[in-house]
Known about the structure:
- By secondary structure, this protein is of the alpha+beta class.
- The strands form five sheets. It has a five-stranded mixed beta sheet, with no helix packed on it. The chain has a five-stranded antiparallel beta sheet with strand order 9-18-13-20-10.
- It starts with 12 loop residues before the first helix and ends in a 24-residue tail after the last strand.
- It has 16 helices and 20 strands.
Amino acid sequence: xxxxxxxxCEPGAEHYTNMRHLHRAFARARSxxxxxxxxxxxxxxxxxxxxHSNNAARVRLWMALKRPGGMGHAIESRMLTYPDLKKADFxxxxxxxxxxxxxxxxxxxxxxxxxxxxxxEDKYGDAGPRLTPRTPEGRAAMxxxxxxxxxxxxxxxxxxxxxxxxxxxxxxxxxWHGPERGMDLPTRAAKIAEIWRQLCWLEAELEASDRRRxxxxxxxxxxxxxxxxxxxxxxxxxxxxxADLTWFPTCVFxxxxxxxxxxxxxxxxxxxxxxxxxxxxxxxxxYSAMRAEPAVEAVRAxxxxxxxxxxxxxxxxxxxxxxxxxxDPTLKLTYGVPQAVQLNYQQxxxxxxxxxxxxxxxDLGDVVDEHVAAEVTMRDxxxxxxxxxxxxxxFALQSWPTKCDDFEDDDAVVATYYGEMxxxxxxxSGAERVFIFDHTxxxxxxxxxxxxxxxxxAPVPRVHCDYTASGAPRRLQxxxxxxxxxxxxxxxLTPEDVEELAAGRFAFINVWRSIDDSHPVMQQPLxxxxxxxxxxxxxxxxxxxxxxRTGENYSLRHSRAHRWxxxxxxxxxxxxxxxxxxKREDGPRFxxxxxxxxxxxxxxxxxxxxxxxxxxAFFDPPELExxxxxxxxxxxxxxAGR
Length: 642
């Protein structure tokens, strides 16, 4: 609907001619609503428009694109200003006092842009190209796109004061619009986040639609084609539909406001690079294709000119000042702008030597441990929608408060924290049984990467993954030899028990959390890499040579293709869960990770204090022949131990 109050398009012959006709139309609408017969029908429907209203622009686009030269022969257009909406006359046309609105020849009013568009396409569909898909599947896809826009972006879903649509977060303020239409900064941040979420959904939907069309074409599955007009087209559903007309004007708002006042990248410019490339390349390609149509570009120019005028008048200054004055670092308003950081990648070894280090024993000089800093793009994992999951990316952030109050007491950690983490790993992974075998407390002031008994270690500032394809099964066998106590069986597992577990699917999973009660993580946060971005040839083995065994990590050669993520300001109640080995090969298996220096952290950031636990998750263990002791499983978890 219309949302601004001081300006409109420049008056033109088709905009403001003969306002008496407008008032007559209002009068006829009022008489219709009052059940008073009209003296005579209107010659043709009257469409009430406003040049900067994104919802009214949907209808304006339909009339421009439906037929060369427009639909003026069949529908009369009237351009309003914001004050016109407040008149009692207009309330008879649309009691919500919004545009667009339509008066039919018999005086009946029609409002809500989607209803108007559906009516016009149904009534005048033969006037030009179809703007709805031919098949039920295609029409359902179109309606979904329109519905998401209307529910989550463009509609406040209420007429009560103080409620506003998500899009209003881009331009409504107390300073310009007053208390009924303005919003505070937390509300603005929440609505800006909703805009980001819906754009992420739309981008993913378009990518999925492209893949479906490619599959149908590749396999010649004509019976699955949603619409014969859609194949290969540049629009949201391939062909031009009402969904394109619905989203485009709102995207003009976003194009104008989000980069300018909120620091977002140029969302709809495929070539933009500063401050970052578009996070929505499919949407950017669609937007560019839409702009190539002169009638569409003309509508964009009208909306753009209005917002330039309002910027010059000072409408956005209260918002800019409000953001600049905020001291709350948790209020996020900028999206899609990753930062450049330095990560330490391992150097491959010279000829005749391996890569690794000796632990608790003399160094024999046959392995080297050298790394080099390389610049990577670090993305905010909190921006991922849908959120990261173990199945999709190999890592996930889970809210999981703890009752453990002393992480320096190993016995307390084992007694309290291990059980909590077993429950968390089961919930995050879907595993049936979980065994926690180790934990490490790390503090950013330390230098030793390996903790002494009862002590803490330093964060590991090197890209690595804890296990290799061959090392993980070997580590399970070693842990079995050391003794895995099963509460479910009430005894230590035998070698045969461990062999049975190893025959099924198992995964090594780490859980990392801050143990600082007062501050989120701001020093040396943990970054994780999307394994889909890691080529197999980028990995190589790093050996950890203990006195009694040799463990294997994966190290990683640097590549610009690697996609790195972290969760800024991770709190104590949040746990980063990630896989470091999974026997199943058709998903993420090896999540590389590292601590790093976050350039966005304040200079006086408090030291990082964290704990990580290491778990083995079993997904299809053999059934037990022995009876289960209910007392030993009262905690709901079969494994405990170290």
